[in-house]
Amino acid sequence: MARKESITKQMIIDGAFDLLKKDGIEAVTARKLAAHIGCSTQPIFRVYDNMEELLTELFEKARKYYEDFCISNHGNYDTPFVNMGLNYINFAKKEQNIFKLLFLSGNKNHTLYELINGNEHAFVMKEIKKIPNLNMNNVELIFTKVFIFMHGMAGMTITGEFDLSDKEAEGMLKDAIKGFIS
Question: For residue 41, what are the CA distances in angstroms to 15, 27, 30, 33, 53?
Fold first, then answer.
């Protein structure tokens, strides 16, 4: 008799991530996930105590995916925060459902700053160090202004209100950031 394939934890989380990317976090239910990976809900709840536990792990997988995206798309811009802003906007454009989960869902376990900064990568601090004649008293205000600007651009990208090329977005970011820093 042929042995039945066992559904692994990796298969479950990868299937949940596929659903997230394709259809959004609302599609990640036990029944839809089971159908997607070709099993009943029983293997899911054999591995995870509940959907909340699975969704917590899914969020971490999405967070890591964003970090890897930023690392692989690292530019060499002299103007602070331009690379970070372009990555943020392009991620919103290319991975709308993951972006919504990470940056628009109000996750209480992570602040937006923590998500953007990356766990061990200190993306924000690397950008802050690029600011000439930095006055440490202004750092928080500068970052807040930059984040509001890039978050607005990313949000407008998702809603279809923002359809600028990378070059145009880069120019807008450079102009705004120079204004925030001076």
Answer: 13, 15, 6, 8, 15
> pLDDT tens-digit profile of 88-130?
999 999 999 999 999 998 877 778 888 888 777 788 988 888 8
Q: Is residue 54 part of a domain?
A: no
Q: Of 107, 103, 101, 93, which Cα lies nearest the Cα of 147?
A: 103
Asked if residue 102 lies in contact with residue 30, where contact means CB atoms within 8 angstroms, the answer is: no
pLDDT per residue as tens digits for the range 66-87? 999 999 987 788 899 999 999 9
What is the domain count for the chain?
2
Domain that holds residue 81: 63-181
CATH at 40: 1.10.10
Q: Which amino acid is at 36?
A: H
